[in-house]
Amino acid sequence: MTADHYAALGLAANASLADIKKAYRQKAAFYHPDRNDAPDAAQRFAQVQKAYEVLSDDEARQAYDDNRRRNLLDDPLQTAQEIWQAYSARILSSS
Fold it and tell me: Per the database record, which ranges form the J domain (predicted)?
């Protein structure tokens, strides 16, 4: 499964550019490897950077959104399973 850029920033798909910038600043500051000792901090930081790179560019965001919708429609069962697995993993890791 490809990374969900909206989830990486903790945003809904209808987020404004201002919301994207704000979420990016918060997440980047939190996951920056110099400030966060977690073993996955560098990986999470890279995901946040990539998400911002895509979602802050109008053309890249449109292409990402189109591809996201197309993938949802191509195999909805697989998409639902991937969403559930990602959600379950987040819930279990936060416990």
Answer: 4-68
According to CATH, the topology of domain 5-93 is: Helix Hairpins (1.10.287)
**What's this model's pTM, rounded to 2 decimal places?**
0.72
Q: Provide the residue-wise pLDDT of the chain in tens; the chain has 95 residues.
A: 457 899 999 999 999 999 999 999 999 999 999 999 999 999 999 999 999 999 999 999 999 998 888 876 667 787 788 888 888 888 887 76
Gap between the Cα atoms of 93 and 95, Å rounded: 6
**3 state SS of 67:** helix
Is residue 41 within 8 Å of residue 33, measured between CB atoms?
yes
Q: Look at residues 7, 5, 85 and name the one whose alpha carbon lies nearest to residue 49.
A: 5
